[in-house]
Amino acid sequence: MARGQAFDLTVAQDGTGSFTTVQAAINAAPVGRTAPFTIFIRNGRYKEKISVPANKTFLHFIGQSVANTVLTFDDFSGKPMPGGGTYGTSNSASVIINAADFAAFNITFENTTGESPQALAINVQGDRAVFQGCRFLGGQDTVLSQNPSATSPVKHYFRNCYIDGTVDFIFGSSTAIFERCVIYAKTRSAAGASYITAANTPQGQAYGYVFRNCIIPANHGLTSYFLGRPWQNSTGASMPFANNKVVLLKATYGAGIIRAEGWSTWDAGTNTALITFAEYKSRDFRGRLVNTSQRVPWSRQLQDADTAAYTKSAVLGSWDPCTVAAAVCAPFAQPIAVTNFRGVRGANVTAFRWNASWGIAGVQYELLRATTRRGTYTAVGTQTAASDSLYNFLASDAVPAAGSAFHYYVRATKAGLATHISDTVTISRVPTLTATASLPAFTQYTNGPSAPRTYQLAGDNLTSNVTLTAPAGFEISVNGGAVWNTSIVLTPTNNAIPTTTVSVRLNAAAVGTYSGNVTQASAGAATVNTAVTGSRVNTPEPISNVLQIWSMRVSNQDSAAVRSANLMASASQLRRLFVSNGTTVPTIPAYSARNGQAFSATANGDGTWTTAAGGPGGNLNRGFYEQFTVTATGRAVRIDSLLLKSAFYGTVSNTKLAVVYSRSNFVSDSADVVGGKGPGGSLLTGATGGFAVPILLPNQTNGLNASNQYRLALANTSLLLPAGQTLTLRLYWSCGSGSPGRYALLRDVQVKGEAQTVSATRSAVAKNVLVVYPNPAASEVTVAHTAATAGAQILVYRFDGRQVAAFAPVPGTVHTRLPLGAWATGHYLVVYADAQGRRSAAISKE
């Protein structure tokens, strides 16, 4: 694009243009154009979420230089969105192009999330899009070149571009040509191979991705790559399966980068007969033909005559991208562009690495260092690219002294080309303390200190001890509660404090409210404060036993063996949710001991959640839920919490769970749960489990277990359910994945609280406490109970409701020992039953 060209709008961060942000310029552009509207973007790092709507046709972005005009953001799949919910794959993109006839020249599109999860640099869905001399930087799923629908094919053209990533980083369903591009498959931190493309070409579409004269250099490490795998041609994919098409013509491969097999299936359910994966005369950097004798048998090696089907005109039809602008197919002068500059500090040496976006012989790379970020930089190493096949560069330097930091950048120069200076990397040994998690309020009862809560503390580059100090009324421990103090000193090892669990409890001497900060301080480091608040009350701790369980392993009926005598039998009800058909994903039946209940939003049970299929999609909807009821019979029941295990199978796209309850069957009242604990302690990202702040559920393919358990409080204290009244709980799920075979999983739903006694005195209630210790146990437990009467029983159940043992306590005794040796490892419920009722306690067998 000529420098002398007059542009319609200019974007400049320093205020010298029409706008300071790219999105503002897009918003100001006219709609419905039939000729190019040019937006010149001066050098700068534009961190903004950019979207070109469908009515802004014929926009052309022209960057001042590809190395220095960067459009960047950091959204990723599963990241909480500002207005609620989470991002999925497609809307994680830094730049989204929905308009037709878009073009970009000399622009870097970037997502800085890292290796994973899915985090797009660009999502281009508009027809006839052109990218010339651009860079696309990311990790998993960098470039989505996609049809907006299978019936609306679109065409894209990438020429002289650089694209990097780690997994499936060129993916989608469009017809696209990549011509003379550098495809850089990055070194991954995880061991094993990865994948460059993941095309899901629709049935009936003649072409998918065509790579013409592209280069795939070697990377820095041991990560090798398959050229591609077939997205949406696999177990659980919707029918018809994708007819995946990827063809490489005259590609050049770096040493060891492409696996001998060449291509991969997605899983055992892939139909290889639907795939067109092919190569034509692939060569190494010495010009020798690549040995393709070990390629998978269902891929193809094209012959000369076959190549006529893959010219630009054959693939793109009447659309000629070379006519979009004079620069598109003009000779390309490769620019200097330092990419992926990283530094990793070791014990004595910092190792640096970077790669060139385009291999250029004779470029000199200098590694420069300063002791302050904007200070004087001096070269600590210089090297020159010996040939245009050299893409990867390494350097090293001594680590800074403890308490200090070094700042580095790479300067790349060659006569006749614009110099490029990389981003700055800081290697720090400045003392740093970090503490994770905020702590819910503490309550201390008359029978001892409050229950402890925990958070994680770590320190790096420390030059002195770390002192932890608790505020008045609170105590802290760093050995799991074995010893409690008001102040603790930690001594660093090798200038670091490894991640340490800090326990906190309220142990005040007088009734009242207490608050303050646990302070963590070390010389030279910023003091870190962990806020705590709580109260000591003049009442004993409420009793909380399991009152009712729906194991969901065999059916949705509650367990009669576990149910309190004060509650009515109950089965859950699905509202616009349907159990799995057991065939879309055969390993995920409707009910199983491994996963519990599996369900989705489509009546055929195929695991689909989209709004197009009648489901809630990625946002919670009050019309889609599972309902549980708890009905008190002869006595009032106090209910304090709900426990459950839940996750999703096969996805984390907007996978959410919320719990709401009512004592009028949602006629006149409704309340959200008020928070609780998740698998890692406190719930993540500010979630409480309420409808507006739901839990973000993980992907779980190995069966629900303790790492998927959530403990949710129904009220800040508890709620009393009078005899004859019903508590209705509704559990809501959502899922943003557009594919079938995505199931919500639910198991071991438990309601906890206390069946009220006839006596109004708290001491009488306390007599009904059931204590089992030690817990967990290996060979034997002791059950402490009220004085046994004739006919009393101790019953032991698995959490699926099966009775595994029964014991008769000796009349008059208050302790009974139970042998555990023959029991399988796992969780059990111990129930003590006599004429006064049933009391229970959960135990774990190690």
UniProtKB/TrEMBL annotation:
The keyword Cell cycle does not apply. Keywords: Aspartyl esterase, Hydrolase. Signal peptide: none annotated. Residues 8-313 form the Pectinesterase catalytic domain. SUPFAM superfamilies: Pectin lyase-like (SSF51126). The keyword Lipid biosynthesis does not apply. The active site is at residue 168. This is Pectinesterase catalytic domain-containing protein. It comes from Hymenobacter frigidus. The lineage of its organism: Bacteria, Pseudomonadati, Bacteroidota, Cytophagia, Cytophagales.
